[in-house]
Amino acid sequence: MEKRPRALYMPLSREPSIPQPRTNVHQFMTSSNLTPIPADLRRLAQGSNAWPFQEAQALIKRIETGGSKKGEVLFETGYGPSGLPHMGTFGEVVRTSMVRHAFSLLSDLPTRLICFSDDMDGLRKVPTNIPNQEAMAAHLGKPLTKVPDPFGSHESFAHHNNARLCAFLDQFGFDYEFLSATDCYRSGIFDETLLKILRNYDKVISVILPTLGEERRKSYCPFLPISPKSGVVLQTPLIAMDAEAGTVTFHDEEGEAFTVPVTGGHVKCQWKVDWAMRWDALDVDYEMAGKDLIESVKLSSAIRRILGSRPPEGFNYELFLDEKGEKISKSKGNGLTIEDWLSYASPESLSLYMYHAPKKAKKLFFDVIPKTVDEYYSFIVKFHEETPEAQLKNPAWHVHLGQVPHFDMPVSFSLLLNLVSASHARDKAALWGFVSRYQKGVSAASHPELDRLMGYALTYYRDFVAPTKSFRAPTEMERAAMEDLLIRLISYQIIAMPKQSRLRFMNPAKANLLIVCAIGSKHFMKPCSDKARGRALAASSRFMALKTARP
């Protein structure tokens, strides 16, 4: 296992080339703008009810009761390299990193995070989004590290996707170690635990068999041999085993019996047994999983106990829903991809979305982006005004792993979206023309974070709002009201000149609002109440000031 920046550890071949991180992605997990940490931070963290601290406290109890004796704490996340990294991959790594950092405040034990790739799994089906599908079909059933790379850039399909995983994690600045299942099986890292499974064969299958159908029970074996002839991962019944010799015997595709050791990469384990085996062999202390894997966690935990060790701490997070409240499905294409989010908002905002209520099902679609972005900056501003105790509960502390930057954001993301929509701005220069007149001294050089936000706002409007935006011809009443409003707004300075005019002493935003209310009452016979006027003023005064500040 090797740490970044040498992201891949694949001694089976040359190290694949890793794409460089995108330069426009904020390294929010390793911000250099450090926030001072008070000396009594550990005491405050012990009393925090933020969920990463609660998870860390549970992990500490596990260790204190004999759950780990190796002198360090190992966190783990998993990845299936039959597909590319996705929203779930990011969510699991970022949440685990939050728990890991919370733990580091509560304990002096060193920690490591392993991102484990199940790249010895057999290729079940050919993905529809890759080239050379016919050639790939000839390798169905083979370990992913033995399936040729359809893109032609790496030794195998697994090598290609593992490289994409590491580049994906590197661009966010995650601190992790990559580990390959193929390497662990072949190098002997798993050998001792595989032999333990063989010695406890009857106990292990007694956990699994009750969960299977009648036909599957007849053929189930926790070991999947690699065919000496075809190289395919075989699902075939066990003929015989020799626990003392450490071997198992199966029939190959042609019905011939063959005997192989369970060590050295000649077999791999079935999924639930494989998970327990990995936990035991690596001595994993913490791993979270999705709600859809609750039963798998229970079974794998039971198997790890059979092997003589305690299962890791962790929790089951809820899955994402689409805008209709339905489960997101790759085949339906009804979800929001991580590429979608990063086109319209920052990775920090995505990290915030992952932080909020991980055990609660949440809708993940385009409309949640603006709200989450504004929440992110709101938490940033609030953080620097809070007591240290309150800071530990602030999501910004967990998003930035305690290194919360300072941002001066005179304009919100929602306001920028409204401004783009109202002004039909097509570039940052137009937006800066409005903003610089509204806030003197504010520029792209002085406020680079706001400049970045403008880019997201323009993209979001262009791709998501503009295509669905439609207009209709005004009614006669509406036309008369707008013409009247235009005359009144143009004449504002003249109207405000007389000393007796109350508009003379108002700021332009409030004066314009009063004019709008007066025109509305006149033409639509609907009085504008003080309460409604107050709400409208609070919500729109900044926007109107921007809108009237012609560049």
What does this entry look like structurally?
- With 551 residues, the protein is an alpha/beta fold.
- It folds into 5 domains: 1-12 and 45-189, 3-Layer(aba) Sandwich (Rossmann fold); 210-268; 321-399, no CATH class; 413-468; 476-548, no CATH class.
- Helix content is 46%, strand content 9%.
- The protein is built from 23 helices and 13 strands.
- The protein has helices at residues 41-46, 51-67, 87-106, 133-137, 157-170, 181-187, 191-199, 201-208, 214-219, 271-282, 294-306, 338-344, 347-355, 368-383, 388-391, 395-399, 413-423, 428-438, 448-465, 476-490, 492-496, 508-524, 530-548; strands spanning 2-3, 73-79, 111-117, 177-180, 223-225, 240-242, 247-251, 257-261, 267-269, 289-290, 316-317, 320-321, 362-363.
- A 4-stranded mixed beta sheet has the order 1-4-3-2. The protein has a 3-stranded antiparallel beta sheet with strand order 6-7-8, with no helix packed on it.
- Helix 11 (294-306) links the parallel strand 10 and strand 11 (316-317).
- Helix 7 (191-199) packs across helix 10 (271-282) and helix 22 packs across helix 23 (530-548).
- The longest helix is centred in the N-terminal third of the chain and has 20 residues, at 87-106.
- The two termini are 56 Å apart.
- The model is unreliable at 1-28, 30-37 and 535-551 (pLDDT under 50).
- Belongs to the class-I aminoacyl-tRNA synthetase family.
- It is found in: Cytoplasm.
- Keywords: Aminoacyl-tRNA synthetase, ATP-binding, Cytoplasm, Ligase, Nucleotide-binding, Protein biosynthesis.
- A motif ('KMSKS' region) lies at residues 327-331.
- This is Lysine--tRNA ligase.
